[in-house]
Amino acid sequence: MTDLRNDTFLRALMKESVEYTPVWMMRQAGRYLPEYKATRAEAGDFLSLCKNADLACAVTLQPLERFPLDAAILFSDILTIPDAMGLGLYFESGEGPRFRKTVRTEQDVDGLIQPTMNGELDYVMNAVRVIRRELNGRVPLIGFSGSPWTLATYMVEGGSSKDFRHIKAMMYSQPQVLHKLLDRLALCVTDYLNAQIIAGAQAVQIFDTWGGVLGHREYREFSLSYMQRIVEGLIREHDGRRVPVILFTKNGGQWLEVMADTGADALGLDWTTHIGEARARVGSKVALQGNMDPCVLYSSPKRIRAEVKRILDDYGPGTGHVFNLGHGIHQFANPEHAAAFVDAVHELSAR
Amino acid sequence: MTDLRNDTFLRALMKESVEYTPVWMMRQAGRYLPEYKATRAEAGDFLSLCKNADLACAVTLQPLERFPLDAAILFSDILTIPDAMGLGLYFESGEGPRFRKTVRTEQDVDGLIQPTMNGELDYVMNAVRVIRRELNGRVPLIGFSGSPWTLATYMVEGGSSKDFRHIKAMMYSQPQVLHKLLDRLALCVTDYLNAQIIAGAQAVQIFDTWGGVLGHREYREFSLSYMQRIVEGLIREHDGRRVPVILFTKNGGQWLEVMADTGADALGLDWTTHIGEARARVGSKVALQGNMDPCVLYSSPKRIRAEVKRILDDYGPGTGHVFNLGHGIHQFANPEHAAAFVDAVHELSAR
C-alpha cells in the first residue's frame, strides 16, 4: 500500500494538529453529479452499481476529481447486510429501498442467513480493495455500515418508514425478539467493518440514520448499546495506523455525552446542534464531524462561505474538527456550490 | 358559560396543585376511533368535517365519551389559515394535504388574502362556540394553531415534505421573503387564537411540527421568534381566568430553555427528552406536557401502565405536568389501549 499523501482527515479525527480543517461530504458520490448518473445508467440499476467493483470505484472517485476533498467514502448501500441475510433488497423508482421479505417474528430472525465476508458480502470488500488501489494514497478511504437499529428498521418495516410502526410495536411488545435481531446485526456489522478495514478502509463510520426516532431510554437500549459493542469489537489499528471510528446518529443531538462514552473517536453532528456547545459537552473525548445543513447549498457561494465561517467560528480554535454536511448532499444540489463549500472550508480554516 | 367541573388541566398548566396528573392525547379525535371514521364518512371528506360545526363538535366529543380525558381539543386542521389565505387546500387519499397554489416569491406573499376571523375563518370560531356549549363545563376546551414556520413549510412546498427543499432554499437565499411570509402568518395566527379564545377556547396550543428540521440558529430566527410574538399578542386572561398557552416543537428537545423564555405557560415534549431532565432545565418557568411515545400503545395495557409509571416517576413530585403522548395518536392504535393509558395516568398519579 502506498503512503498517504493527505492524512489531514485522519489526523483531525485523532485530534492531532492539522494545517486546515479537512472536509468531505456525506453521499458525495451521488445523483447531484451528472457523471454519477451516467455511470449509474451504465450499471443498469443501483444494486448492480454497488456490486460492480470497477463502477463502484469509478463513482467513489468522481467527486475527488471535481473537488479537493480530504477523504473518499466507499460507494455502497447501507442495506447490503440485510440483503445478504436473504431479505431480497430491491428499489422501486421514487419509492426508496424495499425488501421482498420482512422480519416480524422470532422465527423470521432465526431464519436469517448469517452472511460471510468472503461469501455474500465479498463484493463490498472487493470494491474496497479496488478503490484503495485506485486512490493510490491520495486521501484516506472511509468504510461504513448502517447501525444495527437503522438496519433493523428497514428489515422489520420492509423498507423506509414514516412512523416505524412495526419495529416499535416489536420493541415495546417483544423486546427480546428485537434484541435477538440486533444482536445478530451487531455481530455482522462488526465483521463487516473489520473486513472493510482489512480490505483497506482507513476509517469507518456507523450511520445511525434512525436512532433519533427513539425515546431517550430506548435509544440507549436498542441503538447505542449495539453501536458500543461494535466499537469494542473493531480493529482499531491496522497497517501501523489507528483506524478511527465515527458514530453518527441523525437527530441525536441530545445524546452526545453518552455517544462520546462508547469509545468512538468522533461523533457526526447534524445542523440542529451548535458545534461549539457540542464540543464543550463532549470535552476531549471525541472529535466532531459536521455540521452544515445540506440545504445551504441551495443558496449562493457567498452565503455558503458565510455559513462555513460561522461553523468554523462556532467550533473555535484547535484541532478535532472534520467539516461535513449534517446529512447527505441532496440530489438537487448544484455541483458548483459543492465546490464553493469545499473551497471555503479550506481557505477559511487555513492556519 | 357554565362553570368548569374539571379544571385539573388548567391548574396543572398554571402549576397549581392538582389531585392527579391530568391527561389528554394529541389527535384524540381521529381515525383510531371507529365512530370518528363513521362521522367522517358522513361528512364526505376531511375539510367538510372541519367546516361543519355540528360534526366537528361530534368528533371532538367522541373521545370524551370513551375516556375520562381532562381536556377536549377543537377538531380542525392545522392548514385552515393557508387555505383561507387562498391557497386551495385539498387532500389526496394517502398523500396528505396539498395546495393548489404555492408561495415561492415575494409576489406570491403579497398576493395572499388576509383572512378575517368573522369571514373566511368564522367556521372555526363557530365550531369552538358549539363545542364549548356542548361540553357544558365538563372539561376545558383547547384551541390551537400551527406555528408560522410550520404553516409556511406547507405553503412553500405545496404540501408535506421530506427534505423541505423549497422553503430552505428560500430561507437561505431570500430570507426577507420568508420573513415577510412569517410576519403575515404570525399576525394571522395571533388573531386566530385570540378569536378562538373569545369564542370559548380555555387554553391554546401552538403546534410547531416542523421546527425541529431547522438549524439551531434558524430555529430561533424563523420559528421561535414568531411564536414568541404570538405569545406576546395573545389574550392571556378571559372570563376572569388565565388562558394558558402551550408551545410544542416536535424534535425541539435541544431548545427547551429558549422556548421557556418566550413567556409560554407550558412546553410540549416529544419522547426523545427525559421529562425530569427537561423539568430541571426549564425550572419554574413553564409546565411540561408529554411525553409518551404513541407507539407504546401498540404494546399491552401492562406495558403501557409501566411506561406511564416511568414517566410519572421521571417527572417527580409536585404539579406542573400534563400527561400526553409525544405526538398524535396513530390511526392503528387500539382504543382499548388508549383507555388503559388514560386510566393508568389517573390511577398512578392520584395524590
Name the beta content range of chain A. Answer: 5-15%
The stretches of 5 or more residues of chain A where confidence is low (pLDDT under 50) are none
Q: Which overall shape of chain A is indicated by the principal axes computed on the Cα atoms?
A: globular
Order of helices and strands of chain A: HHHHEHEEHHEHHHEHEEEHEHEHEH
Compute the number of strand runs of chain A.
11
Determine the oligomeric state from the structure.
Answer: homodimer
Calculate Rg of chain A over CA atoms.
19 Å
Largest interface: A-B, 33 and 33 residues
Please outline the major beta sheet of chain A: 7 strands, parallel
How far apart, in Å, are the first and last alpha carbons of chain A?
Answer: 30 Å
Helix content of chain A: 40-55%
Classification by helices and strands of chain A = alpha/beta
Sequence of strands across the biggest β-sheet of chain A: 1-4-5-8-9-10-11
What is the overall number of helices of chain A?
A: 15
Mean pLDDT of chain A: 97
Walk me through this protein's architecture.
The structure is a homodimer of 351-residue chains. With 351 residues, chain A is α/β, with parallel strands linked by helices. Helices cover 48% and strands 13% of the residues of chain A. Chain A has a 7-stranded parallel beta sheet. The first copy, chain A, has a two-stranded antiparallel ribbon with strand order 2-3. A two-stranded antiparallel sheet of chain A has the order 6-7. In chain A, helix 4 (53-66) packs parallel to helix 7, helix 13 (275-282) runs parallel beside helix 14 and helix 14 runs parallel beside helix 15 (335-349). The longest helix of chain A has 25 residues, at 175-199. The model of chain A has no long low-confidence stretch (mean pLDDT 97).
